[in-house]
Amino acid sequence: MTNNLNLALPVGTTLDRFINRQQEAFPYAKGELSQLLRDIALASKIINREINRAGLIDITGALGTENVQGESQQKLDMIANIRFIRALINGGEVVGIVSEEDDEIIQTGNLNAKYVVAIDPLDGSSNIDVNVSIGTIFSIYRRISPIGTPATEADFLQGGRKQIAAGYILYGSSTIMVYTTGKGVNGFTYENSLGEYFLSHPDMKMPENGKIYSVNDAYYDEFQNPIKDFINKMRQESGCMARYIGSLVGDFHRNLLKGGIYIYPPTRKAKDGKLRLLYECYPLAFVIEQAGGVSSDGTQSILDIQPKTLHQRNIAYLGSKKLLFNLKKRLDKYHDLMIEQMENGL
Question: Which domain holds residue 220?
Answer without folding.
Answer: 212-343
